[in-house]
Amino acid sequence: MAGVDPGRLDDKELLRELETIHRTRHDTLLHGPGDALDAHTVRMAALENEYLRRHPIRAVTPERTREGARSRGVPGEARG
After folding, report:
1. What predicted TM-score, i.e. pTM, was given to this entire model?
2. Are 4 and 14 contacting, i.e. CB atoms less than 8 angstroms apart?
3. Chain segment 37-59, per-residue pLDDT in tens
4. In 3D, which of 47, 52, 80 has the Cα closest to residue 66?
5. What is the pLDDT of residues 25-34, one digit of tens each?
6. Nearest 10 degrees: CA dihedral of 49, 50, 56, 60?
């Protein structure tokens, strides 16, 4: 895996790495060769897993849940 082991990053560095990798994901998906996309996927998963390990309980925005999507009538979400 390229880059610093996510477990060795402090919280600020981890968030900066996550912001960068999420910002570059779309371009890598559309225009990167297969090996770059594979490396990006592995790195992104490692960073996200480290974040989740450190923050197992996160604030969840109600609108980001299925129930919240249903209440605002998002297309493709079944209404209950």
Report:
1. 0.79
2. no
3. 999 999 999 999 999 999 999 88
4. 80
5. 999 999 999 9
6. -70
- Indicate whether 79 belongs to any domain: no
DSSP 8-state class, residue 79 = P
**Alpha-carbon gap, residue 62 to 20, rounded angstroms:** 26
Pairwise CA distance, residues 44 & 50, whole Å: 10
Which amino acid, one-letter code, is at 79?
R
Is 35 within a domain? yes
Give the pLDDT score at 68.
78
Q: What residue numbers bound the domain in which 47 lies?
A: 6-71
Does residue 77 lie in a domain region?
no
CB atoms within 10 A of CB 47: 21
- Which residue has tokens 């297309």? 75
Q: Does the CA dihedral 59-65-67-68 come out positive or negative?
A: positive
> What is the residue type of 38?
D
